[in-house]
Structures are given as structure tokens and as C-alpha cells.
Amino acid sequence: MAVHKLILDDVFEETICTLIGIHCTIEDYRLAYLLNKSLGINLVRNKKDLDYNNGKSTYSIYKWEDKKQFLTWNLVSNICKTNDYEKERSQSLFQTNQTVTKTYYLLPELKHVNYLLKIEEEFNLNKERRIINTILSIPQIATAYTIDLSQLKSKENLIFS
Q1: What is the pTM of this model?
Q2: Is 97 helix (H, G, I), strand (E, B) or coil?
Q3: Which domains, ranges and CATH numbers included, belong to the chain?
Q4: Which residue, 148, 126, 111, is CA-closest to 18?
Q5: Which end of the chain has the lower number of beta carbons within 10 A, N or C?
């Protein structure tokens, strides 16, 4: 009996988007405010955070849909720090709980990136440079740059809907 194999690699298109990595130490709400002010956008925090690893890690996400240009902007945190309590393994008379901080990343291959700005449209080089230069003009941001999506192993984590 013959075995038929379907190859679906070419059937599904890659999503076309621009991904910008942002390095800064400010809180997510403050960054969203500064981006709104500088870029003339209106990022608003979603009611529910992104939830991965069955609730072990959650990432704040801000979204804005530009109805004039049919664009969707997403600002998402790349780092999630959680405090876990573990029983201390010692031979003492009293048991104590030890606090352990665990760090999770939305994109593990980009551990130094604090925030990701995903724009669901691929811009020409000039518009992309203008956006990055505007982001870099914010004093609280150390650096920002475009990330090549084809180099990411965990790009399925960038599907927010």
C-alpha cells in the first residue's frame, strides 16, 4: 500500500511584521507612555497578560490598532521574574522556606532584550529607520534595533491572538 505524505511548508505564509528589540530598565507602563508620546500612537494594556508555561510565566502586553493604516502595534515584555518558595533542605530542627527568583524569557534567544515592539506590517527601510531613530531619541532607552525573524527559533511565541 502506498503512503501519501503532505508537505505543508509552502501552504502557510510567514506573518509579515517588523520586530524591534528595546533595551531599557524602566517599567512597561512608562515605556508605553513614552512610545505613545514619541511615535504618536496609542498603546493600551490588554486586560489579560500573555500566559505561557501553564501560568509559570506571564508577560505584559500593550496593543494599538491603527485603523487608518491597517496596522497593529504590540509592545510586550520579554522578561518575566517570579518568586517561588522552596523548602530548605537542611537537617535543622525547624523547616524554613527559601525564596528563589526564577527568570523566564518570551524569546529565550534574546535574553538581553527587555521589550519587543511588534508591528504587523513590514516597512520599507526608511520608515523603519525613522521609527528606530524616534525610539532612540527617548533618553530612558539604551538601544533599539530591528530583529530578523528568520533567525528566531521561538517565533511562535510572537503569535498573540
Answers
A1: 0.82
A2: strand
A3: 18-155 (3.30.310)
A4: 148
A5: N
